[in-house]
Amino acid sequence: MAENPAYQLRRTLLYVPGNMPSMLQNIPLFQCDGVIIDLEDAVPLSEKDAARILVRRFLENYTERNKEILVRINPLDTKWALDDLKAVLPALPDGIRLPKADTPEIVERLDTLLTEYEEELGLELGRFRILPSIESAQGVINATEISRVTPRLIGLAFGAEDYTASMEIERTKSGEELFNARMNVLWAAKSAGIQAIDTIFSDVNDMDALRRETELIKRLGYTGKCMVNPRQIDVIHDVFAPKQAEVDYALQVIDAIKRAREMGTGVISLKGKMIDAPVVKRAARVLRTAYAHGLVDVIIHEEDIHGAE
Amino acid sequence: MKLQKRGQAGTMQSSDLMVVVEPADELVIEIESTVKKQFEHLIRAKLESVLAKHGATAGRISVSDRGALDYAIEARLEAALQRAGGLS
Q1: Residues A275-284 pLDDT 10s
Q2: Hey, what's the torsion of the CAs at A137, A100, A198, A73, to 10 degrees?
Q3: Interchain contact B69–A (C-beta under 8 A)
Q4: pTM of the prediction?
Q5: Which of A140, A202, A234, B55 is the S-S candidate for A181 at Cβ 3.0 to 4.6 Å?
Q6: Axis-axis angle for helices B70-83, B36-53 (nearest 10)
């Protein structure tokens, strides 16, 4: 793991239906960075009670955790949400994926509930993290305020399926209709120093379109994507993996800026290109990501980026 | 403690099981399973331990198992008991 938790890899977050033992017990085997065990849309109304018991018992038995475990509870304004929390939190998921996080007040409410459970269970305060779903026009507009509600947030997750429903529009594979919302969620997340996680891509047979969408959201600044099918993991990991040329260049940049500082300057030329603070920051980002991928063993410290006083 | 009414939980999907609990004068456990030959005794032991944990002393417990692991057996039986209104 990288030294800074903000660099924890969350390239791939796989939805797993909460009422299907055959899927739940494969969680240890999936090669994704995290899973979102779903008590919301994947569970029919008649099975909400049974699903949360099943998830609780599954998590209690899954003691050798090898990935991040989030549980998507039902929205806080439904009658199921509190029972969901009561059932699953004692089984210690890493966090809660909060659907319909349309306003900062909704996220604050969950924050308060989690604090109460932590006190009751004798856990460290702040242990349970939150990944809010920004999945409506209202949520997109409020994204900036939502991103600042609590240090529990690991990121903001954009949910395009519900968002397009709230906009009364169709979702397309090219995704032009999502562009402004995607950017707004991204700006909110980046300005709060948390991750931005992109929406699912629902056509599991179209790997080319999945790759194009993942390349797009990576270029924009998203660091991960949710998924509905484990077959999508490899494509997404491939897109997010730092390329060797990028890593090599980043190492040269860090080396160059060190030499510059030894000479008493903050700027230097590398192969005819100016290397200064923003270039160094981007290189550090590449190397930290590469470290998280196990591609380099160089740990980048803040001093490497900014120099010593 | 006795079951007062019927409750059912689970599915017939692979790795799952269907549990029906009903009132009866004594404790009766009936097991149908795709892996009955090898695992009936383990399924029965798991059911008995969950029933004991919840203090159930009387009721008919019918299980159709599709190769469920222990956590699923426990969860489905608990859901069925809860839907039956618990024990009294």
Answers
A1: 989 999 999 9
A2: -170
A3: yes
A4: 0.91
A5: A140
A6: 50
User: Do A252 and A165 fall within a single domain?
Assistant: no
The parent domain of residue A254 ranges over 244-306
- Which residues of chain A does B64 touch, with a Cβ-Cβ cutoff of 8 Å? none
Are A85 and A113 in contact by the 8 Å Cβ rule? The answer is yes
Helices (H), A74-103: 81-88
- Looking at the structure, do residues A208 and A68 belong to the same domain, yes or no? yes
Decide if domain B7-83 falls under CATH 3.30.230.10: yes
DSSP string, A152-165: TB-EEEE-HHHHHH
More confident residue, B68 or B85: B68
d(CA A260, CA A256): 6
A1 pLDDT band, cuts 50/70/90, is very low
What ipTM was reported for this prediction?
0.96
User: Are A196 and A296 within one domain?
Assistant: no
Could you tell me which chain B residue has the CA closest to the CA of A26?
Answer: B15
At A70 the three-state DSSP class reads strand
Does A297 lie in the same domain as A251? yes
